[in-house]
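fold-stage: in
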Amino acid sequence: MAGDIDELTRLVAAFRDARDWSQFHSLRNLIVSLNLEAGELLELTQWKSDAEIDALPIDLYGREALEDECADVLLYLLLIAERAGIDLDAAARTKLAKNAVKYPVERFRGSNRKYDAPD
């Protein structure tokens, strides 16, 4: 991914602050908004076949809609992390390390089962 998470967070916070929207951005409201935007991302797949969904990035309108909804989800996630004092880079790296322990390659390569499912 091009860019820097911290710089993007600064940009979205500046956008928010210029409009005095921080007053509406409680942690709860941000989490609700993130989920509403994730729902809009999900809506792009409603009633579509896997082939139609896979074609979204190729279609001009589909790609723009996909980009817009992904961006909305990311922007709210950045605001949540900023509000909660979470370093997303560090949190993501820590989560990857936890998942590596839960899902060792030799046991889960090519498998979609949950870590606590029997072999």
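fold-stage: in (second)
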Amino acid sequence: MKKTVFRIVSIVMLFVACIFLVVALSHPELGRVFYIGELKIGSEIWRAFYVLYALVMVGLFVASFFVDKAKAEKND
């Protein structure tokens, strides 16, 4: 039961993340340019952050399928 609930939550989170990424990448004008010292954080860097975010979300989703297997093998 607990495993199923966590899988459903992770699928919903991945779905919401995908919607966020589609909207964010489709409308770069929604982001703001800001500066950290002399470093300008513009749309190019925002896109890199979005791609990194997508990779982390997909990686965590995939890892959720292997955590139980690793624990089961460790307990054997």
